[in-house]
Give the backbone structure.
Amino acid sequence: MNRVRRRAVGGRLPVVLVLPALVGLAFLLVPLAGLLVRTPWGAVPGQLVRAEVGQALRLSLVCASLATVICLLLGVPLAWLLARSDLPGRGVLRALVTVPLVLPPVVGGVALLFVLGRRGLVGQYLDAWFGISLPFTTAGVVLAEAFVAMPFLVVSVEGALRAADPRYEEAAATLGASRWLIFRRVTLPTIAPGVVAGTVLCWARALGEFGATITFAGNFPGRTTTMPLAVYLALETDPDAAVVLSVVLLLVSVAVLVGLRDRWIGGAP
Amino acid sequence: MTLRAHLRVTRDRFDLDLDLTIGRGEVVALLGPNGAGKTTTLRTLAGLLPLTDGHVRVGDRVWDEQPGTFLPAARRPIGVVFQDHLLFAHLSALDNVAFGLRARGTRRAEARTAARGWLERVGLLDLAHVKPRALSGGQAQRVALARALATGPQLLLLDEPLAALDAGTRLQVRAELGRHLREFDGHTLIVTHDPLDAMVLADRLVILERGRVVQRGTPADVARHPRTGYVADLVGLNLYRGTARGSTVDLDTGGTLTVVEPAAGPVHVAFPPTAVSLHPAPPGGSPRNTWRVTVTGVEQHARTTRVRLDGAPPVLADITTATLAELRLGPGDPLWAAVKATEIRTYPA
């Protein structure tokens, strides 16, 4: 009966849904196609060997990866706390964690500057006690990216945790496992796909991060000029270079996503 | 060393109040309808749920004494077999069984050797490296049992251990489980809503309704003297041990029954009281199992009348009010009991 009904439903695709769906698809894909069409392919190798491009690309990859590591180390425990503990005010915390998700990145950058800047709430002590100054450094890039990207990881991992059956953790407890051991040997393997998905999202977000980075870390070639910043600057002086840089960024992101997908998610649809 | 517990759990609209004693080597079955508090009882004993009031003591060790002492699950010497087994999907059968030993600090190699021994005892050594996903229901149940027993627990808790199995597997797994439980020298509590599981596996039954004990005793006692209509329906089962020779079974209580499914060796045979008909004279026709009985008691329950009869074997019969009137039963009356072979089920013991 189920099958019969499904076939009947499958018979007529409603125009009201199909039309906007196709428009949406075009809206997402046409700009990318346009970028590829507009690319001066002959100039690509020349651009790629340019020192600034290589530098920006390397900086982008390193910073996004470091930011992702920070997000994993802090974000997974945070997700666990939100999903599994009986902390009072968990709902409020959960809402607060998602604030950077909706916050304009520039605002995030400004906030970081006021807290970690040399005169900032925390920054003044970092400077006075340890001589550490974070703004306008590569470390600042990593921080800005982590700040913007972490909510993606937390939300994704928390979702996986809440979907995972907590009775497995109880079973582990009855076998004598401590909470830390349960987390490592039972919880983490169970939510691994969620963690991987969150990591990918987080990394992609960090790689593309622009607003918070330029506000908090500025634009110093070799130190803080990541690919998105380089693209934006090139657009003003050398549009062809901007296109090439964009395409490179696009290809790198797609390559990493595809690679992770095959390796970790087993090509799941 | 005896487990003594007074369990009190109060939650909105639910209240459990249960005294429970389990001796060493004893198997107690907790029976009751859904929502009676069976799972809550199991969770308090496992340390997954603190008591509102009362205590759990094993020997002179206090596991839970409210207010004040609470030993969490990870620190209790227990083994739990969960209803749907809850085997860790990412670990092999061997690592599942070794998990408890590893968690309690045994070295990997040692834990694996011990786990291998347990898998061998449940007859699954050749599936040691298989992931739970690839195991059948019965195999998963055996791995779960091995995992629970591997740490050498003092208290073994089984939550509906056979409910997740299909009927065919169930018979065999039940018989095997019974064997392992007889070998286990700790305390065992089985939570089940299946009276047959309880009667075959347990030394003692505790029957729970809405958080209160309505009856306790040996399976035979409870079956012969059910105190409420619910218990009568629940354990209203004629159950015997015997030795099968093809389609005849010699019962330990005396008497012989003819069954449909041929078997060999020790078996349980069971049929419901409704399958028994009573006759003033030897009946003719199809029933092949007829024997002489005398009435020892008549009890009126909600919809039927239950007659207790002595004979070889002794038997319970549910009859309608009309039959009751017709037979004019009184204690000591001689009658003939008849059961169709098709109504009798046999289980390997």
About this structure: The interface with chain B takes residues 165, 167-168, 170-179, 181, 185-186, 189-190 of chain A (CB under 8 Å). Chain A has one domain: 46-264. Confidence is low (pLDDT under 50) at residues 1-5 of chain A. The radius of gyration of chain A is 22 Å.
